[in-house]
User: Fold this.
Amino acid sequence: MTNTALIAGAGGAASKRLIETLLADPGWSVLALARTPRQSAGRLTWIAADLLDGPACARALAAQHAVTHLFYTSRAKHGETGVESIEDNITMLRNVLDAVEPVAAGLAHVHLVQGTKYYGMHLGPFRTPAREDDPRPNVPNFYYDQQDLLARRRRDWAWSASRPTFIYDFAPERARNAVTVIGAYAAICRELRQPLDYPGSAASFDALRDMTDAGLLARAMKHIATAAACRNEPFNVVNGDVFRWRDLWPRIAAHFGIEAGDARPFAMNEWVRDKQPVWDGIVRRYGLAESRLDHIADWAFADFHWAHSYDVTSSTAKLRETGFTETLDSAQMLLDHLTRYREARILP
Ligand SMILES: NC(=O)c1ccc[n+]([C@@H]2O[C@H](COP(=O)([O-])OP(=O)(O)OC[C@H]3O[C@@H](n4cnc5c(N)ncnc54)[C@H](OP(=O)(O)O)[C@@H]3O)[C@@H](O)[C@H]2O)c1
Assistant:
């Protein structure tokens, strides 16, 4: 049996490894939709369309009769402190459904990528480990509207959703990435001969956290979108362990050969303003490929990444019960990603 995945928002954090994972299986072809298409090759075809433009989506997808699975991995643009627009995010999802449903008679599944913000992790302390049926915080969130839209609209196809926490990956094309935030910050501390202080509060240094590896997320998404036990249900997707930054910090410092410091909260987005000359020196010393510090890491995102002074953890029990049992050691995962950046000469 051959499946054809349409990935809507195919250049994002959740989609790069999904494309790889699906193409590694000869039973899948991939249609990758974004405003900025990349190079098509073999069973991967890129499609250019703006999801906010309904007629443009319909034109771009009119001939895609083979689509069996829609993976929705897009999000309307937002600032780190801004609230994502419900109207835009609903319009984008509805536009792609309106375009695909009439032409793809074999559409079997629509999968939505959500996140821990479903539980209000961006609002303040919440019940942890979060479980999929926890009550929704009484605050608007586009995830609720999108999930409700799918549940209401479901016809011959089933829906599902994945809820990762922060996504970690080797993704040089994406500055909004905690791996490069940590790596560039540590490299600058080393260059300045300073210890690796933790940029968040003491409470966030000690809070319990979890991580989601992009590759694990991709394999889980494939499982969720195809396993009968996952139809019409949401699932948390995290690595399966928990950690505290305080325990992980000395290992990150050791990776860069410096001392670990203590919690010293500061705004990275301000701290970084005079650091480009320091980075220029690092680039020269280590022969690095990328000279712009704001291309390496998104420093507004950095402040959001360290902002949570309470536990942020999700239960994986529901997903494991459906047969997806993969786990990862989060500390090792982070160090492995840092090593890949070092080998690619993007981080020292
Ligand atoms: N990033 C994380 O760490 C993280 C963690 C947990 C959950 N999530 C969730 O994962 C989902 C995807 O997040 P993300 O961070 O990957 O999002 P993103 O990078 O902001 O967007 C994903 C992709 O969507 C495409 N896109 C955006 N607007 C579009 C439009 N109007 N038309 C067509 N394509 C459009 C973009 O490609 P083009 O610019 O080329 O169009 C982009 O590559 C969201 O629900 C998010 O909440 C993300």
